[in-house]
Amino acid sequence: MARVPVAALDRMLKRRFRPSARPLPALELAERPRPWLNALGLAAVVLVGAWLGLLVVGDVRAPVGPVNTTMALRPSLTGGTKINVSPLGALTLDSHVAPVRLDVNVDQLDPLRSAALVDHPERLSGLQDEVARDVEHGTLDLAVRSSVAVVAGACALGLAVYRRPGRALAAGGLALTLLAASGATAYATWNPRSVLEPRFSGLLSSAPSVVGNARSIVTEFDVYQKELARLVTNVTKLYDVTSTLPAYQPDPSTLRVLHVSDIHLNPASWKIIASLVRQYKVDVIVDSGDTMDHGTAAENGFLDPIPDLGAPYVWVRGNHDSRVTQRYLRHLKNVHVLDDGRARTVGGLRFAGIGDPQFTPDRSQARGGDAAERLAGDRLASALHDQRAAGTPVDVAIAHEPVAARETDGEVPLVLCGHLHHEGTEVLKYGTRLRMEGSTGGSGLRAVERRYPAPIEASILYFDRDTRRLQAWDAIQLGGLGLTTAEVSRHLPEENLPGATPSPGPTSPSSPASP
């Protein structure tokens, strides 16, 4: 057998057992870069850095009419504009949808500009143009400063995290792109009419003066500037007083109706209702039922404050109100009990209502159920139809249960109800607007059964005095048991928004209501 040299044998073994240049699959998987992790980390750096930049140097001080303000952009999931009027509260506007919110803090009233405005009230006519220019200049300055702030913040944090100038510049560029995209989204979704439907939170007593009264809205291109100027003027009036808030001067062309429901024996409700009547100069109070809890004669004394609330009281029976309760109310001064579709003109409006056909004080389910409610609604609809045929149409119908209220569709412009302990609005198939009120008693004793207290809710409805049609409404929500929050939000019917065609009112259904 031939002998193999040792050197050749060594070379053969090395070639045979040489480690592969390609690592094992497991090692390859472990060492493979993960680009999505790098992208996620960079995105976090960009967002946090941009946010820190806005917090540190993103504020702009700008005069808006007679007040000095501080404007800032803040991250937000819903966007919008928040105007902080310390110490009175805040106005929130659904002005745009974007991941940034515009915060405007009213810092102080400028004495010279305020004095000039008070001494020369004729300047109010040009205030809207001045406010529009001030807001435009302020937001432009804010956009430039915010761009610098987000780029600087993202670059600084990127340099601190990656310690590579290239990565830091990339973070700054992405931050600027994100801000530009947010600005484009805000511009695309900009809603100048949002100033017509503000939400006011803070001191409830000042809400009527800040939000103002409802007027017939006509088509005009400068509605945003006019309404923004009005808000600024009202804020000026608030700061111009020392110990008292300005008196609310209601528009004489409107009638104001306070809608309450589901008081459920809460004695605090009477003080709240009396306060709202005074503050909003209410013409009529409408109670859509469940004022009581068990409907016993022993509870009737609870109703005695009603004649002293300061406005006529229109009432329909709820499923917690008994016939005993109804008879007691009929004998109280300034109370108008409606039942069986009977109509009555109170405070300039014609109302018709029907009591709940079921009496369930123990919260049980009566045999009739929804069928009984629909039958009662049919009776109310038939009465409404007869009133209209007689030339005395009803302006507002009232029922306790929404199931009954829906049966009036097409026979009346507006129907009010309650029962479900939460507010809501819908336009029914044939044009009738259904407005459901929450619990003005905060669900009564049931408030202690929940983890969070039920809010106390009521609404101010504004009607045109000539047409007797709903122009707007303010939804009022107070914190429930143990809470001290307050919020008032303005709402306009779609047909009253600027640019909309006024609705001729509900149309009759194809077949008449059943008698």
- CATH class of the largest domain reads Alpha Beta
Counting H and I runs of at least 4 residues, what is the number of helices?
A: 12
CATH architectural name of the largest domain: 4-Layer Sandwich
Structural class: alpha/beta
Tally the structural domains.
2
By DSSP, the count of extended strands is: 19
CATH superfamily of the largest domain: Metallo-dependent phosphatases
Biased composition (Pro residues): 501-515
Keywords: Hydrolase, Membrane, Metal-binding, Transmembrane, Transmembrane helix
InterPro entries: Calcineurin-like_PHP (IPR004843), Metallo-depent_PP-like (IPR029052), Metallophosphoesterase_sf (IPR051158)
GO molecular function, one term: UDP-2,3-diacylglucosamine hydrolase activity
Plain-language structure description:
Helix content is 35%, strand content 20%. The radius of gyration is 32 Å and the shape is elongated. Mean pLDDT is 79; it is low at 26-30, 216-221, 241-245 and 508-515. It starts with 5 loop residues before the first helix and ends in a 24-residue tail after the last strand. It folds into two domains: 38-202, no CATH class; 217-360 and 369-495, 4-Layer Sandwich (Purple Acid Phosphatase, chain A, domain 2). With 515 residues, it is an alpha/beta fold. Helix 3 (35-57) crosses helix 5 and helix 5 (127-162) runs antiparallel to helix 6 (165-188).
